[in-house]
């Protein structure tokens, strides 16, 4: 009896995996439609993810930013693999049409097996495409050092205020924006940013913070609003407040930011062109941001202009123009965009402008930044583009300019200039397309999804 039980036991161990294999592979035969539908769902998810990333890439390129190589490679890989998967599915569907008379179990098995393998492939692409940003910020050693310094300070429990300082156009805003994206839903529960600017209007700063916190301020005075913000931010969560472009000392308590001894709910990152302002604010950690090295500047310049700068005709003059930009990213990107595809004589004219400029002092802005932006403006071929930019400069820095208000100014201007095509028509028609008739990085104009729509001049052109 025991021998018979042993035989059954051995037989059971042999038969059990065989049965499991039969069930597994049988499932491929009878569930092929279900697996095909699951694959279609995953493909739609991947296509939606690709669309969102492509939109972010387009925005980054419009703003003159460098796109991370990993993102570009991922988009290319997704495009190639998706096309192959769709082509395979089309072939399988055509084969099914010829097999309608009776079920082809071998074909069903193969299609089901392929669907499962493709589903795993698509899921892998979705997972590998979870980029926190599409922009390449830590591409240069100098920027990576700054980035890491800020991140270390944010993780230090003894540090509550961090000051990032450097000349205008060096990339402070870009850096802290990227920091905010990296730490949100990680080190911090909420990350909010407000632009302070030269006027340091407390009510305006409170409004910016409240909007980003989805908080409706009911107080009528700055004190009342400060109390509401204080209570909102002192909620037990970890909050990061970024105050960009500070020009003078500002009492954070008057805004409503809870920075007090023993209160660990908030950390503040401040950017300023003036270290003295940060000293008056008594920040806990100073992070200087220097210009790019010559090598880094040339890499960025070449990325913006293209390989034409390596030609024997342009190499020397392009190198000279790049050096005149002084290692400032904003100058390099503006000049690079303006000179891309231009003839040698245009390069020579820009170089002469740099060398012969009599401009020495502009409060708060590097001379090289001014010259580079002026050169970018001069290279705009459309008079409408120049007019639109200059109209925006009538508004204060970082203002959200209503499209309706901008159109009124355009109408008024054209009314005084008979015989010219109405610029306001371009503004109205192109509003829905998300672009102005002005694409130069000089202006960094961005459409905001607020009501009728607004445009913002980011670069400090008002200087």
TrEMBL record:
Keyword Plastid (UniProt): no
InterPro entries tied to this protein: Apaf_helical, NB-ARC, P-loop_NTPase, Plant_NBS-LRR
Coiled coil location: 29-70
NB-ARC domain segment(s): 149-307
UniProt GO BP: defense response
Signal peptide residues on this chain, from the entry's feature table: none
GO molecular function: ADP binding; ATP binding
Gene3D superfamilies reported for this sequence: Helical domain of apoptotic protease-activating factors, P-loop containing nucleotide triphosphate hydrolases
Keyword Nucleotide-binding part of the UniProt annotation: yes
Keyword set, alphabetical order: ATP-binding, Coiled coil, Leucine-rich repeat, Nucleotide-binding, Plant defense
Protein name per Swiss-Prot or TrEMBL: NB-ARC domain-containing protein
Organism encoding this protein: Camellia sinensis
Lineage: Eukaryota, Viridiplantae, Streptophyta, Embryophyta, Tracheophyta
